[in-house]
Write a structure and sequence with these properties.
This protein is mostly helical. The chain contains nine helices and five strands; from the N terminus they run ββαββαβααααααα. Helix 6 packs across helix 7.
């Protein structure tokens, strides 16, 4: 598809006896039919669209040069292949061909773009949530509030920090709260605990790697509250 149809220019097309006359494939036909290609080894003409995207018993998929030359100068036979309206196999193959070439307006391409944007939005959400959780862990602050309903004046440190983040960053605000899917808010207590556990695991791994079997001590007689 990238190279286009095989259209050998300057080739000495062989002549054949058709209906009592010696005829041959005409190079001029390439200019009139953009989908037309010619195989030198097979001495045959093809429809590139129908060859790549055949539908059922697609008789237009391939037609020998003798078939092309059968009627008059050949144009009539090629025109017959093209006829059939919007529902013809030839036109169906053309639509398939053009859709694959025009990837930027292809349905699959558009869907992949949407999925890619969803992935970017999710990464922004997750980054903000992890940043807020790391800050609360580092400061030893409580996450939950007494009243976390939307009407509450103080919904707890976690939700209030996320709200503050949204108010100070338009990019973050676009992917949170009402702009985020209802099942993908990333602010539920369960999600908070999962991320906290992940942070704890990372900290333990770092400590283990630093100790590496050496002697160490723990201070356990402290109470932050």
């Amino acid at each position: 598809m990238a190279k286009g149809p095989c259209q050998p220019k300057g080739h000495d097309f062989p002549k054949k006896l058709v209906s009592g006359s010696m005829r041959k494939f005409q190079e001029l036909w390439f200019e009139n039919f953009c989908w037309l290609e010619y195989s030198v080894s097979k001495d045959a003409a093809f429809c590139l669209w129908c060859y790549l995207f055949p539908t059922g018993n697609n008789t237009g998929m391939m037609f020998l040069s003798t078939m092309v030359l059968k009627i008059g100068k050949g144009h009539l036979k090629i025109s017959v292949i093209m006829k059939g309206g919007q529902n013809s196999r030839h036109n169906h193959a053309r639509v398939q061909f053009e859709s694959l070439k025009d990837q930027r307006h292809n349905v699959n391409y558009m869907m992949s773009r949407i999925c890619k944007q969803d992935e970017i939005d999710y990464r922004i959400q997750l980054t903000v949530v992890v940043d807020v959780i790391r800050f609360l862990l580092q400061q030893g602050l409580a996450f939950r509030g007494h009243d976390e309903t939307i009407s509450s004046n103080s919904r707890g440190n976690f939700l209030e920090l996320v709200k503050w983040y949204c108010e100070h960053n338009d990019e973050v605000n676009k992917v949170f709260n009402s702009n985020a899917p209802g099942n993908n808010q990333l602010t539920s207590p369960k999600i908070q605990k999962e991320i906290v556990n992940a942070c704890a695991m990372e900290v333990r791994n770092i400590i283990v790697n630093e100790v590496k079997g050496k002697f160490f001590s723990l201070l356990i007689d402290e109470s932050r509250d």
